[in-house]
UniProtKB/TrEMBL annotation:
Keywords: Repeat. GO terms for molecular function: RNA binding. It comes from Dipteronia dyeriana. One of its GO terms (biological process) is RNA modification. This is Pentatricopeptide repeat-containing protein. InterPro entries: E_motif, PPR_At4g14850-like_plant, TPR-like_helical_dom_sf. It comes from the Eukaryota.
Length: 146
């Protein structure tokens, strides 16, 4: 990239490449790409790898990527949830059952999902399961029509 385009790749570039390889059905190549990176892979890269492993039910590489994410960002409960989802997709139920107690032991929670909805040129944000937005009834009624 630097040689051909004169652009020094950033962590986001490497993460995008891992994401592309993973989505294209090449999780092993994505992992090999990570191993050959000239810089230390970060959260973006291992997050993309974990997502690819969920898509392709690759428990072995998913565990490796998750372990690196746990080291880099130990307070992010969403990584544990994604690993549990990989186990569930691969029907490894005993591992799924172990994730929640580990999260509770470490005091971790998954950040709630946030949705944005544009209604009459006004953007409304709300969190999964929350009814705190002043127009939540109206928003949920609108979502039912979709």
């Amino acid at each position: 990239m630097k040689k051909d385009c004169g652009i020094e790749p950033t962590m986001d570039h490497y993460g995008a490449m891992v994401d592309l390889l993973g989505r294209a059905g090449h999780p092993n190549e994505a992992w090999n790409f990570i191993q050959r990176m000239p810089i230390e892979p970060g959260i973006t890269v291992f997050g993309a790898m974990l997502g690819a492993c969920k898509i392709h039910k690759n428990v072995e590489l998913g565990k490796k990527a998750a372990n690196r994410l746990f080291e880099l960002n130990p307070d992010e409960g969403g990584n544990h949830v994604l690993l549990a989802n990989i186990y569930a997709a691969a029907s490894v139920w005993d591992k799924v059952a172990k994730v929640r107690p580990i999260m509770e032991e470490k005091g971790l929670q998954k950040s709630p999902g946030c949705s944005l909805l544009e209604l009459r040129n006004e953007v409304h944000s709300f969190y999964s399961g929350s009814s705190s937005h002043p127009q939540s009834r109206r928003i949920y009624a609108f979502l039912e029509t979709l």
